[in-house]
């Protein structure tokens, strides 16, 4: 049982009120789940399950993923800022005793940061030594390319985190912990945290490859054997591989907590403030990349639903739906008006025609390369090029070819939303170039393969899902990890033997006697 789960369960069993703070929004997927927003305070009522807890917020109760929250460091802290200010006022009146209480709160936060870092280092070491090292012994089961796909650059992360936790230990004031200066440590290592971006980008590929391998019982038994030999906690490999993704997103929460109990006159105040800003930027960038990579499957599925698709796959150049809606397209030479559905992605604008009878069926009609376009806002009145009266119109003008597209919205508000969307598209392209974000060929091919499989068993081709646009803005959900269930008839020795090369049976069998009994 993870430390957080164990601590919560222990406090609840003692009759204490246990509170947790939401890290992300949780949109309920069924009536038994508890919905909340990031920042909400949830009363944890049952934490016996490792992955899903039962809690209460406002007037609702239900299950929620434990990975979406963090336990409060000080369980007795007020639930709102007003109460916090009132307590701070009382503390000022209390003098030395109140200051001592504040110092203790800062000490608690610092201890939590150090404790979670030590636990995290152990998780990383277990992955590198318990899984990767054992996998490399089995060249008959894994290639180096497979290992890179499954584990990404986690060995590099392990080395960086070892250096980071060592630096934290050096900054820790053992005699007066509340005087420890950890903010500067985060600032010194902020560039190192950029390597998490590569790991998070690769994580969907790892999930796909791991899912493929664990369809074979040989690999299921092997991974379970690795866990047992390393004496790791009872979490499946996909759960361990999710840990770095969760960790990088928790740093801003910890630093925000540290800043709350760091007085302005403290030598660490400015550094903690700067570190919080820096780590929020890192986490925001990684979260955004994670969301976009999760969305490429939806984009591929959307493309597969469009009739008469022509040209390259949309994922060759694009990975983000910026905006969509209906516009009137005015074409030359007779200034003919056409109602079309437009979908603005990064780098390109796709337009489709609705079926006259089945409005949920779309036919591909063309695309506009946005990289060479200038968006021109037009005044209401007669267009001088097409000699036709227009309202709520704008023009896309290609500077190199001179080709133009005249588009009209129904309302002025819709036109303004489109103009803002075009500006957002250019900003998105600029940011992607600065940060180096891109979709790999493997990710694109896998997304298109998934889409073709779903199309074969799902909706008939040409059926457009109207929820597509809203689906791309939904938060990324952490999957409920399913631990492998092994047959009870299978001897533990038979499971464990998979984790060692056959050429060393004597050493292996000697180690079995020291292992804990196999848990079903």
UniProtKB/TrEMBL annotation:
Annotated ranges, domain PH: 320-427
SUPFAM superfamilies in UniProt: DBL homology domain (DH-domain) (SSF48065), PH domain-like (SSF50729), SH3-domain (SSF50044)
Domain SH3: 15-74
Keywords: Cytoplasm, Guanine-nucleotide releasing factor, SH3 domain
Residues annotated as signal peptide: none
GO BP: intracellular signal transduction
Domain named DH: residues: 105-289
Cellular component terms per the entry's GO annotation: cytoplasm
PROSITE patterns: DH_1 (PS00741), DH_2 (PS50010), PH_DOMAIN (PS50003), SH3 (PS50002)
Protein name in UniProt: Rho guanine nucleotide exchange factor 4 isoform X5
Species of provenance: Mustela putorius furo (European domestic ferret)
Recorded name of the encoding gene: ARHGEF4
């Amino acid at each position: 049982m993870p430390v957080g789960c164990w601590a919560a369960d222990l406090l609840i069993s003692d009759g204490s009120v246990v509170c947790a703070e939401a890290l992300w929004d949780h949109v309920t997927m069924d009536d038994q789940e508890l919905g909340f927003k990031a920042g909400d305070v949830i009363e944890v009522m049952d934490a016996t399950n490792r992955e899903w807890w039962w809690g209460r917020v406002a007037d609702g109760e239900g299950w929620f993923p434990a990975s979406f929250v963090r336990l409060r460091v000080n369980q007795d802290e007020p639930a709102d800022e007003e109460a916090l200010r009132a307590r701070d006022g009382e503390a000022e009146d209390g003098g030395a005793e109140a200051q001592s209480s504040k110092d203790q709160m800062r000490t608690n936060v610092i201890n939590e940061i150090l404790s979670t870092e030590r636990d995290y280092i152990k998780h990383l070491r277990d992955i590198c030594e318990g899984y990767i090292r054992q996998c490399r012994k089995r060249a008959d089961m894994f290639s180096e390319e497979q290992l890179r796909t499954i584990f990404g650059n986690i060995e590099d992360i392990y080395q960086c985190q070892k250096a980071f936790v060592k630096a934290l230990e050096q900054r820790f004031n053992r005699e007066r912990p509340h005087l420890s200066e950890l903010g500067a440590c985060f600032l010194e290592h902020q560039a190192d945290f950029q390597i998490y971006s590569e790991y998070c980008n690769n994580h969907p590929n790892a999930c796909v490859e791991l899912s493929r391998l664990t369809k074979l019982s040989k690999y299921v038994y092997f991974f379970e054997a690795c866990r047992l030999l390393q004496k790791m906690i009872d979490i499946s490999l996909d759960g361990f591989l999710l840990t770095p993704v969760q960790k990088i997103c928790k740093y801003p929460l910890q630093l925000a907590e540290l800043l709350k109990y760091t007085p302005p006159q403290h030598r660490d105040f400015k550094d903690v403030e700067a570190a919080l800003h820096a780590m929020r930027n890192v986490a925001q960038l990684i979260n955004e990349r994670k969301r976009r990579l999760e969305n490429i499957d939806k984009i591929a599925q959307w493309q597969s639903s469009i009739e008469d698709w022509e040209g390259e796959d949309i994922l060759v150049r694009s990975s983000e739906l910026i905006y969509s809606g209906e516009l009137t397209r005015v074409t030359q030479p007779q200034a003919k008006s056409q109602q079309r559905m437009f979908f603005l992605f990064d780098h390109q604008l796709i337009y489709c025609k609705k079926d006259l009878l089945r409005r949920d069926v779309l036919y591909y009609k063309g695309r506009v390369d946005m990289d060479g376009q200038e968006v021109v806002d037009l005044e209401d009145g007669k267009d001088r090029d097409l000699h036709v009266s227009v309202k709520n119109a704008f023009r896309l003008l290609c500077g190199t070819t001179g080709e133009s597209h005249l588009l009209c919205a129904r309302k002025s508000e819709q036109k303004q939303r489109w103009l803002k969307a075009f500006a957002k598209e250019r900003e998105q392209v600029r940011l992607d170039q600065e940060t180096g974000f891109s979709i790999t060929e493997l990710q694109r091919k896998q997304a298109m393969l998934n889409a073709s499989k779903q199309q074969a068993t799902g909706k008939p081709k040409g059926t457009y899902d109207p929820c597509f646009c809203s689906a791309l803005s939904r938060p990324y959900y952490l999957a409920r990890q399913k631990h492998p269930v092994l047959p009870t008839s299978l001897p533990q020795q038979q499971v464990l033997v998979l984790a060692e090369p056959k050429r060393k049976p004597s050493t292996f069998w000697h180690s079995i006697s020291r292992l804990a009994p196999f848990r079903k």
